[in-house]
Amino acid sequence: MDRIRISGGNQLRGIIPISGAKNAALPLMIASLLTSDTLTLENVPHLADVEGLVRILGNHGVDIAVNGRRERQEDGYSRTIHFTCRTIADTTAPYELVSKMRASFWVIGPLLAREGRARVSLPGGCAIGTRPVDLFLEGLAALGAIIEIDGGYVNATAPKGGLVGGRYTFPKVSVGATHVLMMAASLANGTTVIENAAREPEVVDLANCLIAMGAKISGAGSKTITIEGVTSLSGARHRVLPDRIETGTYAIAVAMTGGDVTLEGTDGSLLETALDTLRRTGAEITQTETGLRVVRNGNGIQPVDVVTEPFPGFPTDLQAQFMALMTRSSGVSHITETIFENRFMHVQELARLGARISLSGQMARVEGVPRLKGAPVMATDLRASVSLVIAGLAAEGETVVNRVYHLDRGFERLEEKLTRCGAIVERVSE
Ligand code: UD1
Q1: Is 382's C-beta closer than 6 angstroms to any atom of ligand 1?
Q2: Among 51, 69, 249, 357, which is least packed, fewest CB within 10 Å?
Q3: Whose CA is nearest to atom 31 of ligand 1?
Q4: What is the rounded average pLDDT of the residues 299-315?
Q5: Which residues of 392-419 are buried (b: 16+ CB within 10 A; e: fewer)?
Q6: Residue bearing the bigger pLDDT, 127 or 290
Q7: Active-site pick, 85, 126, 209, 421
């Protein structure tokens, strides 16, 4: 199993290219199931989660070509991939595939909309809470789907004549369930209104792609999305938006190590709350023509309290990284996690580096310390593992992050991007 070995203490200086967003690429790829034409996606990041979804989509009959060729292009960052699903080969998404990645459950929407039925295993993914699927099922039921759960599978069937437009108000904001309802409603008969929809930029990106495919969607990015169903969707060409979580992660890394880095190809408007929070810690952040410039020279790290919230609030996917930063602040900060109930597994690992963190329910109290010291640590989930890398970059001596397969799920060429900016980071394979 691969490990990442970090010799901490160097500042970061240079340019980091930001990849296409994993959390946009996944639903966009799934949208290819909605049409028999080719959906071409540009700027798809090269990640284990993308590869996993490629396998799942292949099982449903999607033909995948990279840059016009069938083989994968291994060099370069994000790629252009063509997805063509002439016919749905299989409406079952089996446990062996779905259990590895929660987002693969989302195929339920397009399969049901296009074929009138879907049998999808209950999902797996990062162990950051119970993560039920009740909102997906309630939402699809509002479009007329008949849902049964049997042997670990969800069996969903559309009424004769297909799904029908309906109204659904989310009792709790869900990104995934908003994606799924938007996709399913695009091919339903009549109009669907989704209330209390997720407003994440990735939802807007999916809506824009669906609109390019011929869907009639308005309001994406606001709390109310209206979808007028159409009988079929066509192919389209769409560019995946930049990864705001990768952007925020490297911005936090620079805020922690100090230095001067331009995050190339990204857009600060995708993560304003996180950037404002980082500015309050002492980082200088400016949007330039090529991306975002993050600078921290000399001044200490100020403690700032954070509460995670659905977009446009502070993202839960940056909570662990921000906590790493706060371990070196000049005071006490409080970090409250409101989205996932079990997303503090990085706390005990950060403590191994010398961090002082105490937990009380959903709130962590982080008391800044003058220095962290390298140690072996264990990655527990995707975002937690990168928080350990960030802490390792700022720690004295050597940090070894074990179980880095979590990182490969969501960060394209992490060690290469960091090394280019002066960090000493290497992957050790066994
Ligand atoms: C997506 C992101 C993930 C991010 C999360 C919140 C992708 C691939 N993943 O995950 O990185 O951390 O949004 O921004 O885009 N919930 C229910 N019932 C449901 C569905 C969700 O109770 O049927 C709960 C979840 O357990 C969680 C909350 O709602 O507590 C938000 O989850 P959701 O927005 O659905 O997260 P994902 O779409 O899985």
Answers
A1: no
A2: 69
A3: 174
A4: 96
A5: bbbbeeebbbbbbebbbbbbbbbbebbe
A6: 290
A7: 126
Region of poorest pLDDT, from 7-16, 23-32, 271-280, 397-406: 397-406
Q: Is the pLDDT of residue 125 over 80?
A: no
376-378 β-sheet, strand order: 376-378, 398-402, 3-7, 424-428
Q: Using one digit for the tens of pLDDT, what is the confidence trace for 32-71?
A: 999 999 999 999 999 999 999 999 999 999 999 986 444 3
pLDDT digits (tens, 9 = 90+) for 362-371: 999 999 999 9
| Residue with CA at minimum distance from ligand 1 atom 39 | 176
User: Is residue 224 very low, low, confident or very high in pLDDT (cuts 50, 70, 90)?
Assistant: very high
Indicate if ligand 1 lies below 6 Å from the C-beta of 135. yes
Q: State residue 338's pLDDT score.
A: 96
- 126 included as an active-site residue: yes
Ligand 1 atom 17 nearest Cα: 132
What are 406's two structure tokens?
């979590």
pLDDT of residue 72: 42
Peptide bond into 312 cis (omega under 30): yes
Distance 131 CA to ligand 1 centre (A): 7
